[in-house]
Amino acid sequence: MERFPENELKKLLDELGKRPPITIITHFNPDGDAIGSSMALKLYLEKLGFSVDCLFPSPFPPYYNWIPRVAEAKVYTEKDKQSFETYFSADRLIFCLDFNHPSRVNQLSEFLTNSKAKKILIDHHEEPSSNFDMCFSYPGSSSTCELIYDFMMRYDTSALDKDIASCLYTGLLTDTGGFQFSSTHPSTLHMAANLMEKGINATEIYNLAFNNFSLNRLKLFGHCISNNMKIVEDKKLAYMWIDRRTKTKFDIQDGDTEGLVNYPMKVLDIEVSVLFKQDYDKIRISFRSKNDVDVNKIARQYFNGGGHINAAGGMSKQSLDETLAYFESLIPTIF
Ligand SMILES: [Mn+2]
Fold first, then answer.
1. Strand, coil or helix: what is 134?
2. Residue 332 C-alpha to ligand 1 middle, in angstroms?
3. Ligand 1 centre and the CA of 143: distance in Å?
4. What would the pLDDT profile of 132-155 be if each residue is shown by its tens digit?
5. Residues 41, 43, 48, 51: what is their CA dihedral angle, to the nearest 10 degrees?
6. How far away, in angstroms, is 170 Cα from ligand 1 center?
7. Does residue 135 sit in helix, strand or coil?
8. How big is the CA angle at 67 (ends 97 and 184), to the nearest 5 degrees?
9. What distance in angstroms lies between residue 175's CA and the mean position of ligand 1's atoms?
10. Ligand 1 centroid to 145 CA: how many Å?
């Protein structure tokens, strides 16, 4: 599918031509693609003379502290709720990056939904909601960073510098799992090459993005794989869980469980991996799959979630034991 078709792009450029103040917002628990695409667009539009505020609905993992000027992003907390309303005023242009539904910005969803400002969605998740004035949704794409790069190539190529390239490369790299997922297309690698030509340090970004564990986090992974994992061989399925006790034992920080769900996939014969995480008021569930096993469908249909064909998330309001029992009861029919 052609991205940013001429007539749609023109509408967006017309809006930008009015030189509005810009708000960029991404999903809660922002990941490499969310942070990278948001900061890249902020740096880029500021270079072009716009006034830009970048909002994160919740804190980002400390191992992304190195992202250029990420400290300028405004991280939402309950106590400054009212001050955030100003970022949704009617005179603004709001870019919504790397999410497909207002609920994904958590406590800020009310402001976003009620805002009279024009809302531009740029995203690659399946089935975007209809809450946006312009919708640049391309689910087959590697990352939101690739879409932001496309937009830059169509708007003003000269503003793309090394810092912006580093932000974009981060999302490109992390959302493709280091260029391993099937969403990695020729365009993805062409883009990576162009970013390298801007002088980024690709090896360093890889290490910062992937080889950044605390020792506790490594031990947590080992513990869960050894003690909290079940394999259903004939279904090529692995599932794991993390209960509150384990969290306390390993002194888990936000983001520490990120990536654990991918580990069972390192076994050649395992096609699906599911991770259940006990949170304060719910169980968060992550799904990963290989080939044509559609975990987006499973997450949507049974666990109030969604995502991509090979990577999705969901949740359950039941206890951990009940959730696991429910999941086990589904195994014979859904896999
Ligand atoms: Mn993404």
1. strand
2. 31
3. 5
4. 999 999 998 999 999 999 999 999
5. 90
6. 11
7. strand
8. 55
9. 6
10. 8
